[in-house]
Design brief:
With 402 residues, the protein is mainly alpha-helical. It has 16 helices and no strands. α4 packs antiparallel against α8, α10 packs parallel to α15 and α13 packs antiparallel against α16.
């Protein structure tokens, strides 16, 4: 008996992937040098860095619940994508003029507001234009293209910092070009399908929204949200990995290699992981990813050599490849079509609630007790969440939505 031919991935997914690629070139160019800029130029403490990174990612995640719900209500995704990517581009010049931790905080918050606006509608649009037979591949492809940008950005930062003797302002200026190029790509390239809203409320979000959706989403979805929240308490900012690399002896100019290593592994694994998840099950692969994260962070707690640090970063990138697109595919599997934007928003809201305490806790432990205590605590929480998710696997397998 012949195997069914896999559906082609729609052009819209490719466009969204290349938009993510360009955005990550810009964002990761900045992000790969920002922790050292804050630490060495602005003299920020580990706690300051944890607060800034935690607040920024929390704002982004919490906003996704509103943008996702709104895209479901109006039946449109593209406008919110343009708004989100546009805002992130417009605020990036603030990094050029940052002479205090406060300005960096404002710039990071505004940039992440843009991410929060675009994230859930983008993930929902991928689900809109795909089917259950190719959705994992589609999320994996978009994530892989996204991560190619996350490799190119730090490489550009590495080259710029080396050639200009650590001229942070020039690097921040170069990051503006791909950020604005994204807007042209999305405006002319994205074609969204007809998507008629079945939700009647004219409010962006109200107190009845979650109650209304609880009656339409399976309980397995909310168990998954709770598990993702628990895991996110261990998922502190990658800024601490850059600072850990410096502790291992890496220079400020070469610290972006940490993100290069992570994202090369991420880019190479995300698409194969999507294919594998379509065959083996999204929940199984996500559980494996959580276990890998726990082991990798235990390694970060103990590592002291540059080469070992970079090797662990490659393994960490594998965790990302096995988890990010796969989680999106699992969420779309568990939720009805007309509520997917809201579902992605709810998941990201849960993540957002955890990211601030996660980064603050890591910063406090790093500041007062060192890297061993900080990373070992993250490893322990991640291991607990992996065990909780493993227990849920039979229930998740029964909750498939077409």
């Amino acid at each position: 008996m012949s195997k069914p031919v896999a559906e082609k991935i729609p052009l819209t997914v490719w466009i969204l992937g290349f938009a993510s690629l360009l955005t990550d070139v810009s964002t990761e160019l900045i992000h790969s040098i920002l922790p050292n800029f804050m630490s060495s130029v602005l003299h920020a403490s580990f706690i300051d860095i944890g607060l800034i990174e935690g607040l920024a990612e929390t704002v982004a995640s919490i906003l996704k619940i509103f943008s996702g719900a709104w895209s479901d209500r109006i039946g449109k995704r593209k406008g919110l994508l343009l708004l989100g990517y546009g805002l992130s581009a417009l605020v990036k010049p603030l990094f050029l003029f940052a002479n205090s931790v406060l300005i960096v905080l404002v710039a990071r918050l505004a940039d992440r507001v843009g991410k929060g606006i675009r994230g859930a509608p983008r993930d929902a649009l991928v689900a809109d234009v795909t089917s259950s037979s190719n959705r994992g591949r589609a999320y994996g492809l978009r994530q892989s293209l996204d991560t190619v940008g996350a490799v190119v950005g730090p490489l550009m930062a590495l080259a710029l910092m080396w050639l200009t003797q650590s001229n942070y302002q020039l690097a921040f200026a170069v990051a503006l070009v791909p950020a604005f190029a994204v807007l042209f790509l999305l405006y002319f390239g994205v074609k969204e399908p007809a998507h008629k809203s079945v939700l009647s409320s004219d409010k962006l979000f109200d107190a009845k929204l979650l109650t209304e959706h609880k009656t339409k989403m399976p309980p397995q979805f909310f168990f998954l949200v709770a598990t993702v929240f628990l895991f996110s308490l261990a998922n502190s900012s990658d800024a601490f990995l850059i600072l850990k690399a410096r502790d291992c002896g890496m220079s400020i100019a070469t610290c972006p290699l940490v993100l290069v290593a992570i994202n090369i592994s991420y880019a190479l694994s995300a698409y194969p992981a999507g294919i594998l998840s379509d065959r083996l099950g999204h929940g199984r692969l996500l559980t494996v990813a959580f276990f890998i994260y726990a082991l990798t962070y235990l390694g970060f707690a103990l590592v002291s050599q540059q080469s070992h640090m970079l090797l662990l970063c490659l393994v960490y990138g594998l965790y990302l490849g096995l988890s990010q697109g796969v989680l999106s595919a699992l969420v779309s599997q568990l939720t009805p079509t007309h509520l997917r934007g809201t579902a992605f928003g709810i998941v990201n809201f849960a993540v957002g609630l955890a990211l601030l305490p996660a980064s603050l806790l890591t910063g406090l432990l790093y500041q007062h007790y060192g890297a061993l205590a900080a990373f070992a605590t993250c490893a322990a929480i991640a291991l607990l969440s992996a065990l909780v998710l493993a227990i849920q696997l039979p229930s998740l397998a029964k909750a498939r939505q077409n």
